[in-house]
Amino acid sequence: MGSCPVDVAALALDDPPPMPDPLIDLSAVNLSETLLAPADLDAFLPQSGAMRHLDRIVTMDDARSWAVGVKDVRDDEFWVEGHIPGRPLLPGVIMIEAAAQLSSVLYQYRLVHDGRDNEGFLGFTRVDNCTFRGQVVPGDQLVLMVTEDKFQRRRFSCDAQGWIKDQMIFEVRCTGMRI
Q1: 53 is catalytic
Q2: Does the 28-178 domain belong in CATH 3.10.129.10?
Q3: Which of 30, 33, 66, 116 is 20 to 30 Å from 58 at the Cα level?
Q4: Average per-residue pLDDT in the chain?
């Protein structure tokens, strides 16, 4: 076997990059409020059952350019038994899916309130700049925030973050397109 041509020690970071600021100032947000309840989300999200990873929308700005939502992480979710046995951790792809669902609701909510057509299926075409900074376990409340990056007739992108209390868990940019 040959040696690894990469100096692994050189890849280690002495000082991790600083945590970015929250996209939205949560000190002004009452997380116990609900703008859109689970039944209201049915009008915007085709995902249901085990694939619905957004429990409610807490708030949205008047211009519909940002939103805050919540995923209550339960111990009866499908992934708990197998990811990771004895130490269940919410998979990163599900965190991204939750952010994508919130981004999709923001986009569609804006279309409806602007009097535009909201027909068709939204599919996600891209995920960029994803960083995981912490773990999510059953019993946690994952607070999701998204802000509009681009908003076009058929395509949109949002920056998203997931937080538990005062710790950023992940950040990502999601891009979607009407198909």
Answers
A1: no
A2: yes
A3: 116
A4: 89
